[in-house]
């Protein structure tokens, strides 16, 4: 480690205990950051022992189940249901353009070949729009069904007050969906279910990401800005989180050394 030299505080008149305290804080921060790379090397092998996600960074294979979060579209649910009923399979892409719910249709339809179970996470504002998703499944993916009413452990209508409570409820719901008891009842594995974070509120999205940090849980996002609605696989594993955190802290360390 580089030899430490006391920092010079420009424009400050630190004397006595205040000066010693300032030097102590600076030294403590530098000492912590200087050994960050050693901490990273120590814990990296533990992260590498975790199972590697099977998701392909270029393409998402069809899954048997999907967890989605519904936003509140600008149109009433009755109009969206009418649109679904009037749309032929050859023109299904027109439904993908429907604001706030079209990306959910696209994300679900991507798994049409093997899809059997769908968990629609809603709030009191978006709960009525589950019927739109049900109508979509009944017409275009009849082999799939909604699972949000399969007992108390699969109640997908969240009632949290405030962001923190909503995040915790989302994490708890995802844990129930991926529980061994629930998977065994459905006859699927955790790798057979994917989480879609294209819709819903920010707090629900955060809860889904935190709840899916286990590297065996796949995550997808439907790109919406370009109008192509491409399915994007998201790799959010402990390894990636550790790499990003270590990189950020080492960059901060270099900035502190230049400052002092």
Structure explained in plain terms:
The chain has 260 residues and is an alpha/beta fold. The protein folds into two domains: 55 residues; 172 residues, Rossmann fold, CATH 3.40.50.10770. The chain contains ten helices and six strands, in the order H-H-E-H-H-H-E-H-E-H-H-E-H-E-E-H. The chain has a six-stranded mixed β-sheet with strand order 3-2-1-4-5-6, with helices on both faces. A hairpin with an 8-residue loop joins strand 5 and strand 6. Helix 2 packs antiparallel against helix 10 and helix 3 packs parallel to helix 6. The protein is globular, with a radius of gyration of 24 Å. The two termini are 16 Å apart. The N terminus is likely disordered.
Biggest β-sheet strands, sense, barrel: 6 strands, mixed
Strand line-up of the largest beta sheet: 3-2-1-4-5-6
Number of contiguous helices: 10
> What overall geometry do the principal axes of the alpha carbons give?
globular
**Helical residue percent band:** 40-55%
Number of strand elements:
6
The residue-averaged pLDDT reads 77
Task: State the CATH architecture of the largest domain.
Answer: 3-Layer(aba) Sandwich
Unreliable parts: 1-14, 19-28
- The share of residues in extended strands comes to 5-15%
Q: Classify the secondary structure makeup into a structural class.
A: alpha/beta
In sequence order, what are the helices and strands, one letter per element? HHEHHHEHEHHEHEEH
Spatial extent as radius of gyration:
24 Å
Name the CATH superfamily classification of the largest domain. Answer: Hypothetical protein VC1899 like domain (Restriction endonuclease-like)
């Amino acid at each position: 480690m580089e030899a430490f030299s006391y920092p010079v505080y420009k424009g400050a008149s630190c004397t006595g205990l205040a000066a010693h305290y300032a030097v102590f804080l600076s030294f403590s921060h530098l000492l912590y950051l200087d050994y960050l790379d050693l901490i990273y090397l120590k814990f990296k092998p533990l992260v590498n022992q975790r199972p590697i996600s099977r998701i392909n960074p270029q393409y998402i294979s069809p899954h048997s189940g999907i967890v989605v979060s519904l936003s509140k579209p600008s149109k009433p649910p009755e109009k969206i249901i009418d649109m679904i009923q009037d749309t032929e399979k050859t023109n299904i892409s027109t439904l993908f353009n429907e604001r706030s719910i079209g990306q959910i249709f696209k994300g679900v339809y991507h798994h049409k070949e093997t899809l059997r179970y769908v968990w629609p996470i809603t709030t009191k504002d978006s709960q009525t729009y589950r019927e739109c998703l049900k109508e979509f499944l009944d017409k275009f993916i009849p082999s799939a069904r909604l699972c949000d009413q399969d007992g108390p452990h699969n109640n997908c209508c969240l009632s949290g007050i405030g962001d923190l409570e909503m995040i915790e409820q989302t994490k708890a719901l995802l844990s129930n969906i991926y529980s061994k008891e629930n998977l065994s009842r459905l006859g699927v594995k955790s790798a057979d279910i994917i989480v879609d974070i294209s819709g819903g509120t920010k707090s629900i999205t955060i809860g889904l990401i935190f709840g899916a940090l286990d590297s065996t849980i796949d995550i997808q996002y439907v790109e919406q800005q370009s109008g192509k609605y491409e399915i994007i696989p998201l790799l959010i594993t402990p390894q990636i989180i550790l790499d990003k955190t270590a990189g950020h802290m080492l960059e901060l360390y270099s900035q502190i050394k230049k400052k002092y």
